[in-house]
Write a structure and sequence with these properties.
single chain, 305 residues, alpha/beta, Rossmann fold, 2 domains, five-stranded parallel beta sheet, binds phosphoric acid mono(formamide)ester, binds norvaline
């Protein structure tokens, strides 16, 4: 059997997406059952960008499954510069049983997956952030119950997090509305894929430049930073452009009264979200952060068992 990787939610079947969520819930409810599930297995954690949640949850997660991790910081490998992606893959496959990578170009994780004989897990690229979206849908299901037909509104940049939420919505039958400034819409191919593949599950996709239209009657309102890692030089310019998409009390009031507020974190408080919203009882941002642990344990177990 060909080894499995976890590069994008797009690659999962509808059934596999549901199975991963079910397993994540089971691991959260019964952690003791899985303490030697990946006994002795090693996981390389390659980071070419900073991290809090991804690093800690993968590290803690593999230990909780009986395995161990080797952390490689942005200063270490220098993928493609100090050493080619091919050579890194051919080295690490002899040393560890799985590799997580956080990097810039999505082609880097795809090439790693092509060349390494061990599973590759995408811990964020410029194109997507699939582990995040799995944890987010786990959180939404935990709080709201069945996901089918629920409405998620995403405000801000049509970025990596938006793309993974869109792929997840297509698999899980979520209605998703994305509101971005003009010129910051999600990738056209992702939009077309979600419109086409989402029909089977009941997913509906709205892409708009109108934040109020997106938030109207939403069950969950989601935002992310306006300038992602690698776009720091654009941060000032983007602040003015993205201001109308700030999730504040006024915008949030267009959602359902019991709507939850979601954010992948780190948050830039006072920019994409106000304290009033992120600190409100409707906010589930730390529950999402915790669920990274459970969702990724389910992913590692599925790929490496
Ligand atoms: N949400 C997320 O991936 O956080 P980190 O960048 O801290 O890993
Ligand atoms: N879009 C953000 C997500 C961080 C978790 C970034 O890529 O920096």
């Amino acid at each position: 059997m060909h080894k499995k990787d976890f590069l994008s939610i797009r690659d999962l079947s509808v059934e596999e997406t549901h199975d991963l969520l079910d397993l994540a819930f089971s691991m959260k409810a019964n952690p003791a059952k899985y303490t030697s599930a990946l006994e002795g297995r090693g996981m390389a954690l390659i980071f070419e960008k900073p991290s809090l949640r991804t690093r800690v949850t993968f590290d803690v997660g593999i230990h909780q499954l009986g395995g161990f991790s080797v952390y490689l910081s942005p200063l270490e490998i220098n993928l493609g510069k100090r050493e080619s992606v091919y050579d890194v893959a051919k080295n690490l496959e002899r040393m560890v049983q799985g590799i997580m990578i956080r990097t810039f170009g999505h082609d880097i994780v795809e090439n790693m997956a092509k060349w390494a004989s061990v599973p590759i897990i995408n811990g964020l690229t410029d194109f997507n952030h699939p582990c995040q979206a799995m944890a987010d849908y786990m959180t939404m299901k935990e709080v709201k119950g069945a996901l089918e037909g629920r409405k998620l509104a995403y405000l801000g940049d049509g970025n990596n997090v938006a793309h993974s939420l869109m792929f997840g919505a297509a698999k899980l039958g979520v209605r998703i509305a994305i509101a971005t400034p003009e010129g910051f819409e999600p990738n056209r191919e992702v939009i077309e894929y979600v419109r086409r593949e989402g029909r089977a599950t009941g997913c509906e996709l709205l892409v708009t430049n109108d934040p109020v239209e997106a938030v109207k009657d939403a069950d969950a309102v989601y935002t992310d930073v306006w300038a992602s890692m690698g776009q720091e030089s654009e941060a000032d310019k983007r602040k003015a452009i993205f201001q109308p998409y700030q999730v504040n009390g006024a915008l949030f009031s267009h959602a359902r009264p019991d709507a939850i507020f979601m954010h992948c974190l780190p948050a830039h408080r006072g920019e994409e979200v106000t304290d009033e919203v992120i600190d409100s009882p409707n906010s589930v941002v730390f529950q999402e952060a915790e669920n990274r642990l459970h969702a990724q344990k389910a992913i590692m177990y599925t790929l490496m068992k």
